[in-house]
Amino acid sequence: MNLDVVTMDPALLLEPFRYGFMVRAFTVAVVTAIVCGLLSCWLVLVGWSLLGDAVSHAVLPGVVLAYIAGAPFALGALVFGIVAVALIGAVRDTSRIKEDAAIGIVFTTLFALGLVLVSVTPSQIDLGHIVFGNVLGVSTSDLVQVLVLSAIVFVVLVAGRRAFTLFAFDPAHAHAIGMRPRVISAVLLASLAVTAVAALQSVGVVLVVAMLVIPGATAHLWTDRFGRMMIVAPTVSALSAAVGVYISYFADTASGATIVLVLGGVFAVSYLFAPRHGLLGRVTHRRRPGRAQRAAAT
Predict the structure, then answer these.
(1) What percent of the chain shows pLDDT beyond 70?
(2) Which of its termini does the chain have fewer beta carbons within 10 Å around, N or C?
(3) Which GO terms describe its cellular component (predicted)?
């Protein structure tokens, strides 16, 4: 790391923002992080964390086939994201196989197909960037694509937040009051597929699951109210993305992996120090009643 960074030279600290590719990287990382953080709230509560992993990996063959056909990467990824969800549902509903096993079968098979296609496809670009992310290589057209996809998902999630939340907490009650849990589930899964596509540019298919799980899990440690969780998770996600991109510039590390490491660090701190649900917070909370009882006895 440059020693000038340690001395807090203001000019050097602002250096990343002088370059267009870094401004685009910050924008893409923060925008996708906000949407991933928002969606992760429901994924954590519904218990779809593994499904997020499945969809994010299953889009890889769609990306490669889109490249071969000369179509936008997002189109191929979106198609295969929806195909993956449909296959998981079909295997689960038409056989003895349980959902977790169906997820494992579908996503590993599709991801392996994607890796095979990557290995045999002659390419002038590094398709491996789709696997591990290349946020520093985002073009203006990529930026527009991410902004549009993220905006669509954000609007859907905000507009349907009450239905999604009721579905997450009590699907039986949602059905009883006239809602259609299958439709709500389908919309949420479609949002997951689109979000995974948008996040490809930031962290790639391997690490996108972290963006879809860690923010919601972190927020869940800090608050019991879902409304607050919907604020905490996107905030944590966006700040971690910005800090990760910033650190990667000076440390010369992979941006996607650095973003996830920052997220993991925030989760570790939350796991230890969150007031009520952190490890140390729970220990302190357990000791307080004992002290109160001893004080009353004396």
Answers:
(1) 85
(2) C
(3) ATP-binding cassette (ABC) transporter complex
What are the tens digits of pLDDT across the range 91-125? 888 888 887 788 888 888 998 998 888 788 776 55
The residue segments making up the domain with residue 137 are: 3-297
Helix boundaries (H) for the chain: 3-6, 10-13, 20-46, 49-58, 60-69, 73-93, 99-120, 128-132, 140-159, 161-169, 171-176, 181-222, 226-251, 255-273, 279-297
Exposure b/e, 207-240, CB count within 10 A at least 16 = b: bbbbbbbbbbbbbbbbbeebeebbebbbebbbbb
Asked whether 185 and 167 are in contact (CB, 8 A), the reply is yes
- pTM for this predicted structure: 0.81
Alpha-carbon span 255 to 249, nearest angstrom: 8
The CATH number given to whatever domain includes residue 213 is 1.10.3470.10
Domain tally, the chain: 1
